[in-house]
Design a protein that fits this description.
alpha/beta; TIM Barrel; eight-stranded mixed beta sheet; 8 helices; globular
Length: 246
């Protein structure tokens, strides 16, 4: 039995998948996104631990609020760093008739074993993935997150191969991920996928800056303002995105 290392729980999430969601924010992430609004989830040190059964029972108390299209979303941190727990948790959730969703950066994905076999099993119990593609240009992606985007794009291609529904999310950061040539290249990449149900442009915001300061971490985007409405609409036009309407 794997235990989940959980940062926090949200009982009435409205922006983490379809409908009303019970959102599990897991602890631990190896990416260092410059715009991250939850740097307190980076550490993989134990926070709150739950068994799959205990966490599911806690979530099911809110099931009457979910309606026909709500359910459970596991976000982070990075859920795929806890794939053993996620596999057990989602299997039990789906067996209980719950819609399951993973919000992931995709960075831990690999077709190497043993991860890949576990991931294939996980997809049997997963209804939807929210996949962040933070920058299509690999050099800019490395500068923005500290990691290459190769595993992320490979995950997107694999999910297309198996026709697993995804929502693609792109955080629009001025001077970091708001370049017309990159947006056009990303749009071209998305056109090759067969499973994209939705594309969302998420404007960069500064609401998490206080967490960086409280943790004593220098904030790398100091002085960069959120994108203008015109730039957000430009990105939405290029990516054929719709504004988030849950």
């Amino acid at each position: 039995m794997a235990l989940g290392n959980v940062h926090s729980l949200e009982s009435f999430g409205l922006v983490d998948g379809p409908g009303v969601r019970y959102v599990v924010f897991v602890q631990g992430c190896r990416m260092r996104c410059q715009f991250c609004h939850n740097p307190d989830t980076w550490s993989e040190a134990p926070c709150q631990t739950y068994s799959a059964d205990a966490l599911l029972q806690k979530a099911l108390r809110y099931q009457p609020y979910w309606g026909d299209n709500g359910g459970i979303t596991v976000s982070g941190g990075e859920p795929l760093l806890q794939i053993d727990f996620l596999l057990e948790f989602f299997q039990k959730a789906r067996q209980a008739g719950v819609h399951t969703c993973i919000d992931t950066s995709g960075a831990p994905f690999t077709r190497a074993q043993p991860f890949f076999s576990k991931f294939q099993q996980l997809m049997q119990w997963t209804d939807l993935l929210l996949l962040d593609i933070k920058e299509i240009n690999d050099d800019r992606h490395k500068a923005l997150t500290g990691f290459s985007n190769r595993s992320i794009l490979d995950l997107a291609q694999y999910l297309s191969e198996i026709r697993k529904p995804v929502w693609i999310r792109h955080v629009l950061v001025p001077k970091r991920s708001d370049f017309d040539e990159d947006l056009q290249k990303l749009a071209g990449f998305l056109d090759t996928l067969q499973n994209v149900e939705r594309v969302e442009v998420l404007p960069y915001h500064t609401m998490g800056v206080y967490k960086w300061k409280s943790l004593g971490i220098p904030y790398p985007l100091e002085g960069i303002a959120p994108p203008t409405e015109a730039r957000v609409k430009n990105a939405e036009r290029i990516l054929k995105a719709r504004a988030a309407q849950m």
